């Protein structure tokens, strides 16, 4: 990890501490400590296991996609990919560093850059598609609650849905209509010429064209293997399900056993969508505010609400970054060009 990334990581931890401190401003520390020691450790352990399973399944997805074309790609290296993704998602605005971070990890193993990019693009397409599907279902279930209780958050929810929807539409256009997509890219990217040198502009545009070609070629290849695609879709669905269940088990750990499972999961899906709109790494500030706003009706105690938010952020955000930092220290297992499969 570069010195700049280390500094960013420390800054994000300090911002998190400051936000937690601000959330506790009206709560006695003694009350918070008392609530902490009344937590059911088994339900909390299940919540923690959910994030572990979430990361393990993404590791399985990575291995499935890579092993289909490259032999001797170990599960250890496959698991490093989502862990490092968590780290760079957490320290970059709009989670923009996740994809490059994954690519670096795969290049370290000796996988060809074009092949690695294609695998990551296909994984991203499936992941985004499942997010949109899950979010659409959650809108049908929980949007009325959000719109009734919190009008302003409803706007964020809809805006987040539209962004992710257009992302997946754009990706599908690349996969099935690359020629037209290149024409659209040329038009939309043209204003960048006003701010970039000619050489940089044309180099960047060609890079975008290459990305479009890579995704199209990968989609054609995967399209010839429907069972592989179905396997990745099913794995990704369950991966996200485990992630969305985390707040439910945290609430059970705090003694709220009568909560509606479906509604809690739906609200968490919406929170994840809202977080993606905040430019601050990890959605810091927006994540905590959204969680407290949406779950206030379910967790009546202010101290338990803050405790639930802290536990949720530790599990879903800080644990991933810590695991990603550790994964960067692991030595990758190399694959040879001779091991590549057609």
UniProtKB/TrEMBL annotation:
<dbReference type="Pfam" id="PF03706">
    <property type="entry name" value="LPG_synthase_TM"/>
</dbReference>
<feature type="transmembrane region" description="Helical">
    <location>
        <begin position="44"/>
        <end position="66"/>
    </location>
</feature>
<dbReference type="GO" id="GO:0005886">
    <property type="term" value="C:plasma membrane"/>
</dbReference>
<feature type="transmembrane region" description="Helical">
    <location>
        <begin position="124"/>
        <end position="146"/>
    </location>
</feature>
<dbReference type="InterPro" id="IPR022791">
    <property type="entry name" value="L-PG_synthase/AglD"/>
</dbReference>
<feature type="transmembrane region" description="Helical">
    <location>
        <begin position="152"/>
        <end position="177"/>
    </location>
</feature>
<feature type="transmembrane region" description="Helical">
    <location>
        <begin position="228"/>
        <end position="250"/>
    </location>
</feature>
<keyword id="KW-0046">Antibiotic resistance</keyword>
<feature type="transmembrane region" description="Helical">
    <location>
        <begin position="305"/>
        <end position="330"/>
    </location>
</feature>
<feature type="transmembrane region" description="Helical">
    <location>
        <begin position="262"/>
        <end position="284"/>
    </location>
</feature>
<feature type="transmembrane region" description="Helical">
    <location>
        <begin position="7"/>
        <end position="24"/>
    </location>
</feature>
<comment type="similarity">
    <text>Belongs to the LPG synthase family.</text>
</comment>
<keyword id="KW-1133">Transmembrane helix</keyword>
<comment type="function">
    <text>Catalyzes the transfer of a lysyl group from L-lysyl-tRNA(Lys) to membrane-bound phosphatidylglycerol (PG), which produces lysylphosphatidylglycerol (LPG), a major component of the bacterial membrane with a positive net charge. LPG synthesis contributes to bacterial virulence as it is involved in the resistance mechanism against cationic antimicrobial peptides (CAMP) produces by the host's immune system (defensins, cathelicidins) and by the competing microorganisms.</text>
</comment>
<protein>
    <recommendedName>
        <fullName>Phosphatidylglycerol lysyltransferase</fullName>
        <ecNumber>2.3.2.3</ecNumber>
    </recommendedName>
</protein>
<keyword id="KW-1003">Cell membrane</keyword>
<keyword id="KW-0443">Lipid metabolism</keyword>
<keyword id="KW-0808">Transferase</keyword>
<dbReference type="GO" id="GO:0050071">
    <property type="term" value="F:phosphatidylglycerol lysyltransferase activity"/>
</dbReference>
<dbReference type="GO" id="GO:0046677">
    <property type="term" value="P:response to antibiotic"/>
</dbReference>
<dbReference type="GO" id="GO:0006629">
    <property type="term" value="P:lipid metabolic process"/>
</dbReference>
<keyword id="KW-0812">Transmembrane</keyword>
<keyword id="KW-0472">Membrane</keyword>
